Amino acid sequence: MYRAVVTDLDGTLLNNEKEVSEFSKDVINKIREKGIKFFIATGRSYPDTKRIMETIGIKVPLITSNGARINDENGETIYANDLEKKYARKILEMDYKKYGEEIFLNLYSDNVWYITEEMTMDPFKDLKHFLPHKIEVEEAKQMSVSKFFFIGEHEHLMRLEKELFLLTDGNVNIAMVTPECLEVFDIEVHKGNAIKILMKKEKIKMSEVVAFGDGFNDYEMLKMVGKGYVMGNALYQLKEALPDHEIIGSCDSDAEAKKLIELFL
């Protein structure tokens, strides 16, 4: 029934050490040997996602920046969609600190990670392979932005989310990826749309795809594929939004790999 698997990374395929376990690597390679296609769809940038792909020992197309970028197995860009410049400028000019002094602005541009100030609250501090570049806000205004992401306390980000919606008249896509990370990208950008584009190229029907995710940026992806699985450690908003979707175990118990065995092996 299913011919392809699409997986999120953080909180899904990656364990709490931000690694793909040896057990999961083995299962992924075994299902690929049986002819099942395997793809990654993540909020991470292409260079960081490519590094993780290589640790699994595979070479596949990658969906990154929450669907704003698709690169083929050789690294060539086959789809790109940046945030509209007028909305990017509005976000860069807003006073987001009034919702919490600990909130920090990040952005991706051309697969490079930028920050406008040093972060004291940093959930990515253990990422040694991919580090941000510090720039001034005025410099950021000249860039094409594939996505913004705000780091901060969850309750503060929830208030900021409402302000972002009003500021952009609802013309951007906003998603709470983790309790401490709120992301903003083009209104047409989401993982589900990127998967649809990639599956058309691969000649695979969306009904033939299974997907795994844990954040609200996975919502469209899990809704649009043939079967979507919600991680046990998923954001509560995702579980509430997808009450009919099967919830499996946590990312730290190889839950995705165990489900892949059940489905394909």
Summarize the structure.
The protein is an alpha/beta fold and 265 residues long. The protein is built from 10 helices and 14 strands.
What would you note in describing this structure?
- Helix content is 34%, strand content 23%.
- The chain has 10 helices and 14 strands.
- The two termini are 13 Å apart.
- With 265 residues, the protein is of the alpha/beta class.
- An 8-stranded mixed sheet has the order 5-4-3-2-1-12-13-14, with helices on both faces.
Q: What is the first-to-last residue Cα distance?
A: 13 Å
Helix and strand pattern: EHHEHEEEHEEEHEHEEHEHEHEH
Low-confidence blocks of residues: none
Mean pLDDT: 95
Main β-sheet description = 8 strands, mixed
Q: Treating each run of at least 4 consecutive H or I residues as one helix, how many helices?
A: 10
Strand content: 15-25%
Estimate the global geometry from the Cα principal axes.
Answer: globular
Number of strands: 14
Helix content: 25-40%
Strand order of the largest sheet: 5-4-3-2-1-12-13-14
Structural class: alpha/beta
Radius of gyration: 18 Å
